Automatic annotation (TrEMBL):
<protein>
    <submittedName>
        <fullName>Glutamine cyclotransferase</fullName>
    </submittedName>
</protein>
<dbReference type="InterPro" id="IPR007788">
    <property type="entry name" value="QCT"/>
</dbReference>
<dbReference type="Pfam" id="PF05096">
    <property type="entry name" value="Glu_cyclase_2"/>
</dbReference>
<dbReference type="InterPro" id="IPR015943">
    <property type="entry name" value="WD40/YVTN_repeat-like_dom_sf"/>
</dbReference>
<dbReference type="GO" id="GO:0016603">
    <property type="term" value="F:glutaminyl-peptide cyclotransferase activity"/>
</dbReference>
<dbReference type="InterPro" id="IPR011044">
    <property type="entry name" value="Quino_amine_DH_bsu"/>
</dbReference>
<keyword id="KW-0808">Transferase</keyword>
Amino acid sequence: MKILKPILAFLTVGLFFVGCENDKASKSEYRPLFEAKFKSPNNNVYYNAGMPIPVQLEFDSTKIERFTLWLNDSVIAQTNFGGRVFEKVVQSKSLAFGSYQFRLEAKLKEGKLVKDTRNIRVLSKTEPERWEAVVEKAMPHNTTSYTQGLEFYKGELYEGTGQYGRSKLLKVLKEKGSTLKEVSLDNQYFGEGITILEDKIYQLTWKAKTCFVYDVNTFEEIKRLAYPTEGWGLCNNGEQIIMSDGSHKIYFRNPETFAVEREIEVYTNRGPVGNLNELEYINGKIYANVYTSNRLVVIDPNTGNVESVIDCDLLALDHRGSGEVLNGIAYNPVSQKVYLTGKEWPELLEVSFKK
């Protein structure tokens, strides 16, 4: 022990001087292990609309010449910069709901380009209202109809059905559930949502990326339109065809070319709402089935904000029979009444919504 004590004392003094030298070196020269990077925001963070988004960049000031900062495709900062830290606050209140990417590109004095990215999402700041669907009247519905689309046009009810080898476009007598007119799709097509605009019926297909367009009076095919995603639900706002593809996105398409004119992402205050299926446009709002659930969501078509969630659990329990999931929303502008059904359900239901 007597021998060890002097050795330990010597080592302690040595470490002290080494530590002091390291401190002097660290104070005299800042040596980062990076050239340019984000310090904030963190990746994949959610911000409720209205919250400020602090952006902080860090640089090796001895190497950086200039940098550019993008938010999606827009440049939000660009400058020659010789400092270590750059800060900027982005106001989320000016952003639509959805996904965004911050992208940093920094040019070094040696000519090298350094990149870094951060992904964020902007959500609604308001909790959706909670409504309940109440059945006012039940009418027969064909249990062989795997309902994918449901819509009134000039007071008459039309239905699109699915399944390979069973997909059809139907004109239906609402009170009896009987078929007044029909056309079958070829066996290779799985029918999906329908909508009717200016005497033309549009019918999606699930995976064939084909939309059939028919004359509403004769059911004769007029043309076919292409799209790159799966096809799920359709409705229209009187000017554009509105389409879902099973994600949390909704597309507004030109009725002649089917080109996307704009799109929205659908969010509550907690996150995106996916599996958007059959659609209906009612008094300026989009009503959507959420696939595999017994609920509807009411969507602001301008922002993607979910304003209300409609609980249909009791409705499905009492009226589904041996059918599958809830799917099919139709609004009759003539009577101003809403109707719901599901895939192979025995009933078409006139409903009201109670808060």
